[in-house]
Every structure is written in C-alpha cells, then in structure tokens.
Amino acid sequence: MSTQAQDVTTTRPADAGGGTWSLTWHGVRTVAALELRQRVRSSRWKTALVVWVVVVGAITLLSSGALAAISRTESDPPSRGPLLFAIVTVLVLGLGLLVTPTLTSTAVNGDRGAGTLATLQVTLLSPVEIAVGKLLAAWSAALAFLVVSVPFLVVALALGDVPVAALPRVVVVVAVLLVAVCGVGLGWSTVAARPAGSTVLTFLTVAGLTVFTPVFFGIAFPTVTQTETVTVHGIPPEQWADLDGLELQNGVPADATCETYTDEREVTHTDRIWWLLALNPFVVVADAAGTSPAGADEAVGAGRLDPLGTVSEGVRYLRGGPADVVEECWLEDAASSAFGPEQERAGAVWPWGLAANVSLGVLGFVVAVRRLRIPQRTLARGTRVA
Description:
Helix content is 60%, strand content 7%.
C-alpha cells in the first residue's frame, strides 16, 4: 500500500468506518489536507492567484481613475462609489466563475487517471468523506481568490454612497455561489470519464446560468405577451376624438381630465418567467447587495449611478408582473398618487436564485458521493481503476 493510504489508515480512529454516508471530521480533514497540499505545491495555483490580484487591482485602479477624470469634467458628476463597487463585484464574480470550475471538474476523474483515487477508496475513508474533503479543499482555494479581492471592494466602499452592509452581503453570497459551482464540478468529474469532458460540462453549466438564462428569458418573452382587457387611469380616448378642434396645453387637451376606463392592450406577464433571470448568479449578487434600497430611478435622479441597484429594481419589477391599474395620468393637477404606482415592486428574488444554484451544487455533490462507492457496478470503457 502506498504512503498516502498508510497515512490515512493508520491515523484514522479504530472505531471509524461505516457506510456511504458515514462522516467524520478526521476523514474530511485528511482528504482536504492532501488536496490542499498538492495545490500549494503547484506553481500554477500560485501563479493564478498572483495574476488574479494583478488583473483585479489594475481594473480597479483604471476604473477609479476614469471615474475621477469624468468627475472633474462634468458639472454634476455621478457618485463614483456605487459604480466602482458594481465594476469590482461583477469582475470578481465573473473571474470566480471562470476559475472555480477548474478546481473540482477534474477532482475525481483526474485522480482516477493518475491511479490515486483507488488508493483512497480502499482505505477506511467513506465516499462522503472523500467528496466533502475534495469539495472543502476546492472551496478553500476559491475563497483565497475571493479574500484577496476584498481590499478592492473596500476601496470602492471608501468612495462613499454605498451601504457598509453591502460588502459582507456580496462576499457571503459570492462565497455560497462558488461552493455551489464546486459541487457541480465535483459531480461532473465523477460522471465524465475524461477530465476534459468534465471541465467542458462544468463550464457549460456555468454558461447556462450566466449567459443562457437571459437569452431564454428573451425567447420566452413573446410567449407570455397577449392582448387583454386592462384598467387604465388616464385621459380616455374620447377626449382625443377631435384633435383638430382641441386646444392643447403641454401636449394634452387644455380641459382634459383623468378617468378610469378599460382598454385592449398587449400585456406581458413577466411574473411567469422572472425565475429565468433569478437563476443568473450576477442577478443574485446584484439583488442581494442592496446598494440602492430607495429605488434605482430615484437614485439616478439624485445623481447616483448604481448598476447593481438598477438590476435589482428591474428584476423585482419583472417579478411583480403587470400592474392592476395602468397609470397614464400625467397631468400636474391630477391626484394620480391615489391610484398607486404603475407597477408594484415585488419582493427579493435573490433567495430563490441562490437556493436554485445551491440545489444544483447539492445535486452534483450527491452524484459524486454515489459514484465514489465501491465496488462500482459499471465504468466507462478504458477507465483506469487503480
């Protein structure tokens, strides 16, 4: 037996062992330590971490300089804090979703190809301990990239006009999304026979969540659009019947009055397809950040440009669906506020999106545990066992 296997079997408590789902901290720590030891010795991981810091730092510095130059040239410049915070957040999440799949997508089939997986499987380690150890090691490596990015988020926070609570919220949500991606990659690494195949499948899953969800939302948009009878509060069509003989004031008839009437309109029920956008990790982070709780439109009007808040407000309005009363009364002397806003703002969407991403990670983890059991009934053709 190899030194690695001897270390595992001799240091594990004598009463340990059990079925597929038997879990002890000692077993998890052993596998995680072995995985991390290999990563620390790898120069590629260190190089990737240095490149990460350089890229994030350079883009943060360039963005901050560009925003400062714009502020000096404009009489009413937008606040730099929310905009830079959004840039750094999107950059960190985007790079994290590119790096994290490589940490677990070859965790199992790569070890099987190298002949080291069977060495772990014949020890007292249970399949769930092997899976949790590999998942914990990969997540720790991913968190290292996130931790070195926190100072750049602090720089954006220091520019002001961003709630202090936005920083921990973003860090925690991004960390949870990264562990979900690690779980997906771990599952694909046990399903695909070759590391290249599992890596491609993991990247396709991430691409499906980040790129294809808004595409599918756009495709589904016409399918939820239909002509319906809606209630409108505004100037009825009868007051526009004889436009040539009317005296206009500010583009409307001078003696116009707002009334409530019904009309045939095209209505889009975005409340039926909002969940497609909620699956997107960028939407999840933007909605969870809570950078503009007062509302995106109000924030922009006050000279505060907040991309994360704009995305959050937009997806919440889409979740709310069409308004019960379409507000079209824009007369200055009309008490239109009694009819409420044109469209109600729904609740937060990020818990649903985060739960869906975590569910995918849990599914991948469960698949990995089940396929790590021995003896394995079937293996792909040409797969190395030991």
